Amino acid sequence: MDYNKARTFVEVVDSGSISAAAGRLKRTQQAISLQIQTLEKELGISLLVREGRSIVLTEGGEHLYQEFKAQFIAMENSVQQYKSDRSSASGVIRIGVWVDLSSVYFPEMLATFSKLYPLVKFEIQTAVDHELEAMLIENKIDLSHQIFVDNSKLLFQANTFTCEFIPVVSKGYATLSKLPTDIVETLEMPLIDIYGDYSVYRVWIKKNARHLLSVAEKKMAVVCVTSHQALKNLVLEGLGFGLLPRNMIQAELSAGDLILLPLSGDIESVRVDMDIVYKRNNSLGHIHHAFIQHLLDNKIV
């Protein structure tokens, strides 16, 4: 079997389409398609089928992809370890992250890693947990950074980042409205929150006043958003209060633009763990493992 055809097949799967693979390999789409067709003829099986612009692996294609990928990764690891010089290590790391982390946490992590591995490139996609998990399973990304993991049998997770969420309002809101003195009074305040299962407010109530949880679950937010950056902007506009990551709003707290709710009693903040996630039977390369270790070595708590 021709090594180049097998490598092209793996690149098509990793890229998600023949056109994307053609761009990476600097070949025409027709040349890539012909290589795949020739490989299928040589092996006597169908490897993939097209669905619109996407490709879907057959059962045989999935099996051979895993086998081929493992062999190519093993060869790459041998070369990278032989070189040992970080400045010579190269490749692409495909990562899926929450949109907030793409602007708050990951830029610093990518910058510090790039100083160690200057030839390594990154492809970043933003999504929420269930979308990230699907992309991992479908080999569309190599790593993800998420809160909840449903398929723990297939996926491995390790904590790299912990957010502390605190209840805040804007200076303008505090000037015009009476602030609550206890957690019960927050039930009457206009709330800005994250959609559905990611509501930090409900977790906060459950942690500090479980007896109020049934009431809190019925409370409607004045605005629901999908990112904490959007939530912060709405709180700054004075539309209500929200629970935000302390590390995201440190500058606004120091400047007095955001104010911590002056609640009496021993009120605890909410701490949310973010994990780096990848397949347990992964075929990750040397640079992927180096990046994972980089995140673990620079864990933020």
Q: Could you describe the 3D structure shown?
A:
There is one protein chain. The chain has 301 residues and is an alpha/beta fold. Among the domains are: 1-84, Arc Repressor Mutant, subunit A; 162-273, D-Maltodextrin-Binding Protein, domain 2 (3-Layer(aba) Sandwich), CATH 3.40.190. Helix content is 45%, strand content 22%. It has 13 helices and eleven strands. The strands form three sheets. Strands 3, 4, 5, 6, 9, 10 and 11 form a seven-stranded mixed β-sheet that branches. A two-stranded antiparallel ribbon has the order 1-2. A two-stranded parallel sheet has the order 7-8. Helix 2 (18-25) crosses helix 3 (29-43). It is elongated, with a radius of gyration of 24 Å. The model has no long low-confidence stretch (mean pLDDT 88).
Give a brief description:
This protein has 301 residues and is α/β, with parallel strands linked by helices.
Strand content: 15-25%
CATH topology of the domain at 162-273: D-Maltodextrin-Binding Protein, domain 2
Shape by Cα distribution: elongated
In percent, how helical is the residue content? 40-55%
Low-confidence stretches: none
CATH class of the domain at 162-273: Alpha Beta
Name given to the CATH architecture of the domain at 162-273:
3-Layer(aba) Sandwich
The SS-based structural class is: alpha/beta
Number of helices: 13
Distance between the termini: 50 Å
